[in-house]
Design goal:
Elements: H1 12-15, H2 24-36, H3 49-70, H4 74-79, H5 88-93, H6 99-102, H7 116-132, H8 147-164, H9 172-205, H10 224-238, H11 245-258
């Protein structure tokens, strides 16, 4: 359970699930609390040149750290120094590595420059959301305009809002982003599972015909359980999935720890490995 939770759940089975209905009045209370958690941004004060330099240097190390860890090939990694080894002059000469944003190397979530405390809360919230609102997976392939989906979607979102109120830095926008990412990822998982089932049936029909990228590496004498696992890995490896803000925030925290920008306990930001194969 998150250390900064404002309440402790006694029986999760009674609080979360398709049969748990939260009233609109209750949701309005969660709504108001999440709105109040929003941080006012000072758009009027101007930074000094020295302050702007420090911010540019900080973001430059972030960009480079992310690029080296997840994108750069081995040869380029050898050429690029560790982010902490670049002097302010060198960072400026490199244009603060903004080219990695302009050329699309950094994913869409690079624009979410949240404080570390917010990112940590966001990752923990997503972990809890994936456990308590996993039940919605049974409904994600319903017609999005059907009355049943609208009812279940509304029920799940109200429960997600309730969960979000237990985290000090969660706002309404962040909670909704996490919820929509959760639904999107579950839909992708269900669709990938359909592919896995289809490839498995094909393999059973033409055992020794290696005609598809997702089944070509399967040994001829493999047991069915091993085949199913290999197909699953192949499908998740070959077919693209969307990067969520949860994954981005977890990577951001990991990079920040590695380059010395923050020092957080590992258990606060377990990465979302359960979403990957």
């Amino acid at each position: 359970m998150a250390e900064n939770k404002l309440f402790k759940d006694d029986d999760d089975d009674q609080l979360w699930g398709p049969g748990v209905d939260i009233s609109f009045d209750e949701f309005q209370g969660y709504f108001r609390q999440l709105i109040a958690n929003g941080i006012d941004v000072d758009n009027m004060s101007k930074l000094t040149y020295a302050e702007m330099d420090r911010i540019n240097e900080r973001f430059a190390r972030y960009r480079l750290g992310f690029y080296k860890m997840f994108i750069a090939d081995p040869e380029e990694n050898l050429r690029l120094k560790d982010p902490t080894d670049y002097s302010p002059y060198e960072l400026g000469k490199e244009g603060y590595f903004k080219r990695y944003e302009k050329d699309g190397s950094l994913d869409v979530y690079h624009s979410y420059f949240n404080a570390y405390e917010i990112d940590c809360d966001y990752v923990k919230y997503c972990e809890e959301l994936s456990e308590k609102i996993k039940w919605i997976q049974d409904y994600v392939l319903l017609n999005r305009f059907s009355p049943q989906w609208k009812e279940m979607d509304n029920r799940a979102w109200f429960q997600a809002a309730k969960i979000a109120t237990g985290f000090r830095f969660m706002t309404l926008d962040l909670a909704h982003t996490a919820y929509m990412d959760h639904i999107m990822r579950l839909r992708e998982v269900e669709q990938l599972e359909n592919y896995i089932g289809a490839f498995f049936e094909i393999w059973k029909l033409v055992t020794n015909e290696n005609f598809d990228a997702c089944i070509k590496d399967i040994p001829n004498n493999a047991e069915e359980a091993e085949v199913l696992n290999l197909i699953k890995r192949g499908v998740y490896r070959k077919l693209p999935t969307t990067v969520t803000m949860w994954e981005y925030a977890a990577k951001k925290i990991k990079i920040a720890k590695q380059i010395g920008l923050i020092d957080q306990p590992d258990h606060l930001h377990r990465e979302s490995q359960d979403l990957k194969v």
